[in-house]
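Reviewer 2 asked us to include a model.

Predict the structure of this chain.
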Amino acid sequence: MNGILRKLVAVLAHSTRALAAAIAEHFPRRTRMTHPKGGFYIWAQLPENLSGLRLYHAALERLKAEEEIDGIILGGTELPLILTEPEIEGIPLLDTTRLHVEEAVSQLLL
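Predicted model (structure tokens):
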């Protein structure tokens, strides 16, 4: 393994450990984590009586009240698949994939 790849693996491993620590500290008790072999992902499973979408809505409400946020950036491709409404609790959801594609198409059509 060359130096750049070795450094990347170390950075990703550190990020994965930090994410696992954050899940352990901030997610509800009885949340289970699985660390697939050979990867830098963590599968988190909430307790059966909890809805991830409900927790997401509650977090948005708290952020809106405490941090006075103006919008939420849905960075990635998965979140827009489950968060299909244009806003939640009056907070606009910004789908970066859609925004980038729309801009690229508009530039191509100039």
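The two ends are 45 Å apart (CA to CA). The chain has four helices and five strands. We have added this to the supplementary material.
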